[in-house]
Design brief:
The chain is built from four helices and five strands, in the order E-H-E-H-E-H-E-E-H. It is an alpha/beta fold and 125 residues long. Strand 3, helix 3 and strand 4 (83-88) form a beta-alpha-beta unit.
């Protein structure tokens, strides 16, 4: 993976504790400082409180007032600088439902695929 900006911050929104822990460990190993959210309410709170978040990694089926697809769209509208990776083992988003800066990966997903997808969405330079 290319060198991340110093103190790059990622937000992992995943309601399954084991999957959230795996994603957090993977992104920390890649050089991110990682915030965690178990539901979309927590995710939105982190985004509102932390202006340095560069990456949102979210599951589609999330507890909270909105799902991961709606979360991705809200993030794109309110925080356009945040890059987005959306994943799911059960839901395939319809064409056009995700914002343009988002990428979708199907679960189960390998660490290598997560990292290559993150690499693709982050700005280079």
């Amino acid at each position: 993976m290319s060198t991340l900006p110093k103190h790059a911050v990622a937000l992992v929104a995943e309601d399954e504790p084991l999957l959230r822990m795996e994603a957090v460990d993977l992104l920390e190993d890649a050089g991110f400082t990682v915030l965690e959210a178990a539901n979309t309410t927590q995710a939105l709170r982190h985004l509102a409180d932390t202006d340095t978040i560069e990456l949102l990694y979210t599951d589609i089926e999330m507890p909270g007032p909105i799902d991961g697809i709606d979360l991705a769209n809200e993030v794109a509208a309110r925080w356009p600088q945040v890059r987005i990776v959306v994943c799911s083992g059960r839901v395939q988003p319809d064409e056009g439902r995700l914002p343009s800066q988002a990428r979708f990966v199907s679960k189960p997903v390998s660490s290598a695929l997560i990292l290559s997808t993150v690499e693709k969405v982050l700005p280079h330079g």
